[in-house]
Amino acid sequence: MRENSENRKDTELRFDAQTIADFAASLELSPYSVTSYKKCLSYFFKYLDEKKIVKPESGDISAYVAKLSTSGRSNRTIYGYVASIRAFFRWAQLKGLYSDIASEIPLPQMERMPNRKTLTAAELRRVLTGVNRETLQGMRDYAILTLMLTAGL
Q: What does the pLDDT read at residue 23?
């Protein structure tokens, strides 16, 4: 289903690696996050190319999200893809390159992570006192446990 595109200011934005690089250069995120955005966008651009879509509309993004859902991707993964696409089109609109066609695409619900049970102070003491620090292996185990406990792991 195509939207009416009469009032859109879309130019001939190319959906290619250079455009991804330009977008990535504008991100003020960690290198890991930038790499993730670039990967998600390259997959989306490949999808557009395979479908011969040169002027994508919101329905094309919805179809891509549906394809991700039916391919067995988790909601957490799809969330990352949708967030990347939304950020890209928001950037494109700010630059005057393309309408923000992704702003209305809903982010999937994230699965809640189970609450982690923490050890009490007495349980921590019991764990540490249970290690035999007289042996080399015991000293190693004590050091690893102490590191884990003080780092909150």
A: 93
DSSP 79-147: HHHHHHHHHHHHHHHHTTSS--TTTTSPPPPPPPPPPPPPPPHHHHHHHHHTS-TTSHHHHHHHHHHHH
CB 61 within 8 A of CB 101: yes
Please state, in angstroms and as integers, the Cα–Cα distance from residue 136 to each residue in 16, 113, 127, 139, following that order.
56, 37, 17, 5
pLDDT beyond 80 at 153: no
Pick the closest to residue 86 from 108, 112, 54, 53 (CA basis): 108
Between CA 121 and CA 38 the distance in angstroms is 44
What is the pTM (predicted TM-score) of this model?
A: 0.66
Overall average pLDDT of the 129-136 stretch: 90
